[in-house]
Design goal:
7 strands; alpha/beta; about 210 residues; seven-stranded mixed beta sheet
């Protein structure tokens, strides 16, 4: 059975419901509000270790949708005086944009058998290479869907936005798209390999503006 998930142990991607209380609501508004509450509870969690990733996503029932973002702190990516302020501002805007997308993606997929997790893609070089994904930090965000029990996976290729990602997730369930099987005798690619772990800042939060 899937491991029990205590959400207090993980950092969640913020999700603020857009509907406020008070006043009569039509049926569609009630359904929308309930859906937003569902995503607020289920959420998209950030993990920083292999054990956390197993608990949140890989060992849950269904499929694991693993989203790799660039979570490297902005001060490390853009040292003051060494890069143009506009570059830092653009990167901060990207962080905010993709963070806002993730709850939307989870909401659109709330009835599908997916668990979602976020990892720092800059610290997953071994897994990215093993899954045949694009290797550069500029290629982030990236997404891979994994079924560890069946040893299959599928990489998302294209513009990262809620509509395209949701279509990709639906296609996988309908056995459409490029679904790959690990070669016989090979283990599934591992995340948080020792050579990558040193690059993960201990206790680091999502980069802020």
């Amino acid at each position: 059975s899937a491991p029990k998930l205590d959400r207090k142990n993980f950092e969640g991607i913020p999700h603020t419901p857009t509907l406020s209380g008070g006043g009569p609501r039509d049926a569609d508004a009630i359904v929308a509000a309930m859906s937003e509450m569902f995503v607020s509870g289920k959420g998209v969690l950030t993990v920083t270790s292999a054990d956390q990733l197993d608990t949140v996503c890989l060992h849950q029932s269904g499929l694991c949708a693993l989203i790799m973002l660039n979570l490297k702190p902005l001060d490390e990516r853009f040292p003051k005086g060494a890069t143009a302020p506009a570059d830092r501002e653009a990167a901060a805007a990207d962080v905010a944009k993709y963070s806002a997308m993730l709850p939307d993606i989870a909401l659109r997929s709330k009835d599908k058998p997916y668990s979602f997790a976020v990892v720092d893609g800059t610290a997953q070089k071994a897994a990215i290479a093993a899954f045949g994904m694009l290797p550069e930090e500029s290629d982030l965000p990236q997404l891979v869907v994994i079924n560890g029990k069946k040893r299959v996976f599928s990489r998302f290729i294209g513009t990262f936005n809620p509509k395209r990602v949701t279509t990709f997730l639906s296609n996988i369930l309908n056995r459409r798209g490029n679904i790959e099987t690990m070669p016989e005798g090979e283990d599934m690619p591992q995340f948080f390999k020792q050579e990558d772990i040193a690059t993960i800042p201990e206790g680091e939060d999502m980069p802020q503006n």
